[in-house]
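Side project, low priority. Logging it here so it doesn't get lost.
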Amino acid sequence: MEKEFVTYELALRMKALGFDEPCFNLYSFKTKEFMYTIPNVDEVVMFKYGNHNKTNHISAPTFSQAFRWFREKYGLFTQPNRTVDKEGVWYYFSIETKRTDVCEGSFSYEEAELACMEKLIEIVENK
């Protein structure tokens, strides 16, 4: 199940970029440990607004939620891709904006997802 969520390091970097959406799971801010939770509505709101400042936790967005956030907030559209050649199957990702495309590759699917998320954060951090 943890594969559905961005890593602690990516969640922390997204928080620094202004990510403050409600999440169903979280990381311990001190231990960086993924915490399985079954939050009620009040807890989801607390994770959104409190995050590690008051609760010693940081929101753990899913990849889907994180990609949607970059799409809606920054106009960055992503797509993991797959190709087959004589060497075998490999994955890459592309990021499309109004001005330019970024394409990097030769990953496993999960590596492409992580690399794409890291590149999204880097693009926004450097704006």
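Brief comment: DSSP finds five helices and six strands in the chain.
Revisit when time allows.
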